[in-house]
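User: Is it possible to get a 3D structure for a protein together with its bound compound? The compound here is beta-D-galactopyranuronic acid. I've pasted both below.
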Amino acid sequence: MKIKLGFVKNLGTACAAGILLAASASLALAAEWKAWNIHVDGYPNTIAMDKFAELLAEKTGGEITLKNYHGGVLGSQPDAIEQVRLGGIEVGNFNLGPIGPVAAEANVVSLPFIFKDVPHMFRVLEGEGGKAIAKGMTEKGLVPLAWYDAGARSFYNGAKAINSPADVEGMKVRVMNNDLYSGMISELGGNPSPMAFAEVYQALKTGVVDGAENNWPSYESTGHFEVAGFYSLSQHLIIPECICINADVYNALSDDMKAAVTEAAQESAELQRKLWAEREETSRKKVEAAGIVTNEIADKAPFQSAMKPVYETYLSANPDLRSLVELIQATE
Ligand code: GTR
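Assistant: Yes, that's possible. Here is the predicted structure of the complex:
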């Protein structure tokens, strides 16, 4: 009887050990990644990141799954960029604006008016320019898997339509964390106020800032239009976004897995760009129906020429990137 009991006990231990072994083997095989996204439900990027998760599981046969954290719940964008670089979070849907301070090549897209329009930006990204930007980011620990559309950014505020740099004079304008944007506002005679996205609504509402700048969908989805009703189509920045992954996590993948992950990201980007085009329309219609005042800017040349010192600052800090700037400017 004693022997029997011992046997049962050992069998139990062996079973438990077996289960543990099996569990750790499957842990080693199957990875669950976390992904950061700042946007709300229904936003093109949110839907496209959910699609990325779905495609990732499908294309990797369930070996890699992705848990999306939307709405910026994992922290501000500059913090999340650091987290993905360090590997605390594996993936992020980032705007290249706050990546610029980390990777000088990526900062080229934050030079005001560098792109003629969104198609021009994508032509650059698909060519040598995109390769140079991706290389610079990868060297800093962030591998861009695919590019998302974020349209063009324009100024908005609660007081008046902006038609010339003189209208920005003395205005306190929220910008994303990047010295190029602070320089941009200073050169227009305004006071730049770098601030996290999540804080902008209150800051506009309470008058901590007079204005901000963003694309139609973010102006609408954040409710900024409720507290800053003049939207002036300066279109001074056209900044791409990425699905970016931690470089070590990416480099540890087999070639097949790398291909599957990249394919999933690129299919997600196709969807994002389609949804983006639709959302630009619906967001614009929604805010206009709510009574905001929109104006085209007849002459953008004074804004553009005011940006010369911003270009000079960038080029004097990164003289070897002059050819990248010229390449973009020469791209049809
Ligand atoms: C949005 C962008 C976000 C964030 C935000 C901001 O257009 O999609 O990633 O950069 O602007 O102004 O902080």
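The domain at 31-149+240-281 is CATH 3.40.190.170 (D-Maltodextrin-Binding Protein; domain 2). The pocket of beta-D-galactopyranuronic acid is lined by residues 38, 77, 95, 97, 150, 176, 197, 214-215, 218, 241 (CB under 6 Å).
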